[in-house]
């Protein structure tokens, strides 16, 4: 054995022969290297081998994160943050809040001031621009640096390279660190962790050297940590814990802590840290212009009583202990439950964890196990700011990233305990734990690969989180936009429906008006923002559905959005009036600009461009920096060929989200249309260099060459683009036009087929149909021209209708489709003409019969309508909807016996199995209600009363 003249041992003591005093010693343990801290050539080589192995293992696990995309907050913090795109903004990092690039309503809720993190992001952007791999590499590099410092700190604490090595390895590989390292937005955690650990190491070294002078390096590191993240304020407490647990220099006895000995030279030791913290707070006061230094800002109003808030603190502390010991339940969205009883299993588990932790800390104190005591106390001390300011944690208060420093304390305690085992067993157990940590972290990193994997996993883990469900729906909608895959649309509908069901459940659990929120006995955390986002998401689903299937139309999303705008406007008016009366109101900022933008998109695709422009203007008047409004307004202006105005919209959007690929692409496209070919080509070349396999820049380059008459070169670009994205219908359309110029008829027809398959719009259908007509393939052209008629803008309808009327190759199906289109457009004469033509060719055409009955009903020709609908019902004997419609129509006309017979038949058939369960139940309930009213005579009386009322009105 070796005595420990300073520093710490493994906490065991031994009685010297003939001496009743106890000495602090370090056992030889399982380590095979010399006990010295790297003194001499052999010690230095051992240190290098240990450190290299630890860093290599950590890097090998986190290398996987370099393939990750921008996810969640990254999309804003990196993708839409103009402050990090120019080195000239570095100075402003010290004079503004970290999230001040957001809209004022959102930014003023966030009291984060992190200039060092902002500067780090700026430097990465300066050298690599919007390269996710570069930002991920920066996160990994900072984490490796923190791991290296953890090695040296643990080794200095214990005088053991073995303990230092495995503590650092546990620290580097612990699964709770994945959130901090694989998520770019959490860069501040490893960054402040570096300086916190460095401050502890420098302070311990200062103490070991006799506490001479001031701990300058420790204080400087502390200051840098504060500039990285507010959580670094805990360093002051960690310094005190370090003094409480360390063996003072020259002390050889493991005796009870003597306060004067532990906290030597308190002014020199602590005053510089306090002064630094005071200066930090003073600067924050100036930045946020409040004496509370921005800490009064609350991102989340839990609106629960004090008892629930204390239980939440217990959940956070107990959950921290559980995650450190058993890092299995890794989840970005651990939901806050407004109501929870003391007997709840999770609460009991948290309280039990705290009790065990407290008992362990007391035992360490009584047994004078100073290094273990430090490691244990470091856990609550490291998250103390979190426990104090729970209102600033957001709606998911227990996050893995808060555990960055506590992991070091846990790893240290674990290594000290393993050191007590026999040598080979200690190695085997330590390596097994490291491998387990590494495997778990490696698997967890895959979850952070992109937004789809992240939100799918979190929604699965938190099925009762409304936020997670509508967040997943939002991600699926983005996938629909980029892939046009209807499968993603189905998933988006399902996600928003799940969120909607949770909202309904929460609403049913709401307390009576005037009662306190504490009486809301539900585990669901919902806000007004959730109601907005869920309904907005459903509206977007219907918009996307209409884009994928033009026959659906945009009436449904427009109706949803108009109603949502009305409700939100009423709420905001009530809030405004209440605040004018001096009533304090807690509510989220309801982003009306998002609703108006979505409404504008629906109106634009629905053909009402004037209303769409008004909606976009309204959105921008509410929020001038709303990117989506600028983007969609620009698209509308480009369609109107107002290219200069469209360019202004896209340039503003690019200013708000520098480097955004899609915005640059739209700008290049509008520049091409505007005739600024040189500038358009410059943008397209930049985009092509940035993403060589992206099809859109190739399309622009091909279009520019096609416009210059260079058909061969244009065709080369189009062919490359179709290989890059075979599902881009517009590229196939352009390729077909280039092939026509080269008289490659067969290839042009093949390209047109792909165009109408992947982009079934008016242009592709009309041009393909017209080309086939010119080629003499009249019959093949007809269905395409009918599809073009269905999709035609208003100005093209009359001419196209005339050409279709004169076409002699019509079938009943084509005439039925034309009639359906004109019926939707309320062109009743033309619709009746087309439907009559269909029924003349095929008298029993089911679709034409059904539509004709509805048209006749609209025109008030009820007897004809009923006769036609009766024929349709006889042609479709197993169609529930037709028999239900027939029965209700008969009821409306007072033909009760016939109505009852039709409804009984509909009930016997029953709705199809693919009906929504609620719709199925409602339809059957409606039938039962009508049959009951007919049987009781109530229906007859109601009709008679209705006749009297109408007579009185006349």
What can you see in these coordinates?
- This protein has 954 residues and is mainly alpha-helical.
- Among the domains are: 4-60 and 67-303 and 424-447, no CATH class; 451-598, no CATH class.
- It has 44 helices and three strands.
- A three-stranded antiparallel beta sheet has the order 1-3-2, with no helix packed on it.
- Helix 10 runs antiparallel to helix 15.
Structural class: mainly alpha
Biggest sheet: strand arrangement:
1-3-2
Overall spatial form = globular
The largest sheet is: 3 strands, antiparallel
Give the total of beta strands.
3
Mean pLDDT across all amino acids: 87
Amount of beta strand: under 5%
Q: Count the helices. How many?
A: 44
What is the CA–CA distance across the termini?
Answer: 111 Å
Uncertain segments are 1-39
Radius of gyration: 35 Å
| Proportion of residues in helical segments | 55-70%
